């Protein structure tokens, strides 16, 4: 049985990066060396897991369709891919730093980031610390960034089935857990009732 997604720990503390922290993370990533920057951008703009991002190769970035294609690693019994739409500016940065067009022409399909999962995790934690995010709290993680991505998408009125597909969830009930968000995110949802 898969681990249950939780947005709060047993003490009621959040386990996700909020909107202000997501913006700070993106700003801090801008100050990093280019490969760290593109890795952080990928986490930020796709909501993908660290391992899914580390597996990314030039052939899985479709510049014409403006999507990044991830193999959903949680579905080990079968191979499932998902296409995640991304901003043009992000794709330009990815192409400039990793030479995607040249790599495709040369049929050089090596991983974009040849790091271990542990190394990537430490880099993300360092960027979070530079962003002023408390990495000693349970939300100051790549998983907290993933959770924050889903909440941000729902706060921008992205339909739940679309978020489900982007996140790679097999069951929409898993994605619906993100509707339990609190703070400013929840305030945005409920403010619509006040108008």
Q: Which key features would you list for this structure?
A:
single chain, mainly alpha, 3-stranded antiparallel sheet, 51% helix, 6% strand
Give a short summary of the structure.
The protein has 195 residues and is mainly alpha-helical.
Report on the architecture of this protein.
By secondary structure, the chain is mostly helical. 51% of the residues lie in helices and 6% in strands. It is built from ten helices and three strands; from the N terminus they run H-H-H-E-E-E-H-H-H-H-H-H-H. It has helices at 19-30, 34-46, 50-54, 88-98, 100-105, 117-130, 142-155, 160-167, 172-176, 183-194; strands at residues 61-62, 67-71, 81-85. A three-stranded antiparallel sheet has the order 1-2-3, covered by helices on one side. Strand 1 and strand 2 (67-71) form a beta hairpin. The longest helix has 14 residues, at 117-130. The termini are far apart. The relative contact order is 0.18. The model has no long low-confidence stretch (mean pLDDT 88).
- Percentage of residues in helical conformation: 40-55%
- The outline comes out as globular
Rounded to the nearest angstrom, the distance between the terminal CA atoms is: 42 Å
Average of the residue pLDDT scores: 88
What's the story with the biggest beta sheet? Answer: 3 strands, antiparallel
Strand percent estimate: 5-15%
User: Are there runs of 5+ residues with pLDDT below 50, and where?
Assistant: none
Q: Number of helical runs?
A: 10
Tell me the series of helices and strands, N- to C-terminal. HHHEEEHHHHHHH
Radius of gyration, taken over Cα atoms and rounded to an integer in Å: 17 Å
Structural class: mainly alpha
What spatial order of strands do you see in the largest sheet?
1-2-3
Q: How many strands?
A: 3
Quaternary structure classification: single chain
């Amino acid at each position: 049985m898969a681990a249950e997604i939780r947005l709060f720990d047993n003490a009621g503390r959040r386990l996700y990066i909020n909107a202000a922290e997501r913006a700070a993370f993106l700003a801090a990533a801008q100050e990093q060396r280019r490969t760290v920057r593109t890795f952080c951008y990928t986490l930020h703009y796709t909501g993908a897991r660290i391992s899914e991002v580390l597996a990314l190769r030039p052939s899985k970035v479709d510049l014409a369709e403006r999507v990044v294609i991830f193999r959903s690693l949680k579905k080990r019994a079968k191979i499932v891919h998902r296409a995640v739409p991304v901003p043009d500016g992000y794709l330009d940065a990815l192409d400039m730093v990793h030479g995607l067009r040249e790599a495709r022409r040369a049929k050089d399909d090596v991983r974009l980031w040849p790091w271990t999962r542990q190394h990537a995790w430490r880099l993300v934690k360092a960027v979070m610390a530079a962003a002023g995010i408390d990495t000693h709290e349970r939300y100051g993680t790549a998983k907290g960034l993933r959770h924050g991505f889903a909440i941000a998408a729902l706060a921008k009125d992205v339909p739940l089935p679309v978020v489900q597909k982007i996140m790679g969830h097999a069951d929409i009930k898993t994605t619906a857990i993100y509707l339990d968000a609190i703070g400013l995110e929840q305030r945005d949802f409920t403010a619509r009732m006040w108008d």
